[in-house]
Design goal:
six-stranded mixed beta sheet, 89 residues, alpha+beta
Length: 89
């Protein structure tokens, strides 16, 4: 996937996951929230939870990123949360 609209396009490693994955892993987000079960299914709004590293590098650690819309490979996603720096999947 490519993040666009924030300087030069940036290639990202991204995963599509079921709504309950991050809840099952048990690590709460640093800010915002993780996915919900309802967000698993096509037709629902597309949402993204950012890694700490992407949040810092692309968005300068702006806590107002939650609620903003970003473009990933030409599709829009609403940012709902940011995972803590210690989280790795």
């Amino acid at each position: 996937m490519f993040l666009t609209g924030f300087g030069e396009p940036q290639g990202l490693k991204a995963l599509g996951v079921t709504g309950n994955l991050l809840s099952i892993l048990g690590t709460p987000p640093l800010i915002g929230r993780v996915f919900t079960d309802d967000e698993t299914y096509e037709g629902k709004s597309r949402v993204a939870v950012l890694s700490y590293g992407l949040w810092q590098s692309a968005f300068g650690g702006d806590p107002r990123i939650v609620g903003r819309t970003i473009s990933l490979s030409g599709r829009t996603f609403d940012v709902v949360g940011v995972m803590p720096q210690s989280f790795f999947f």
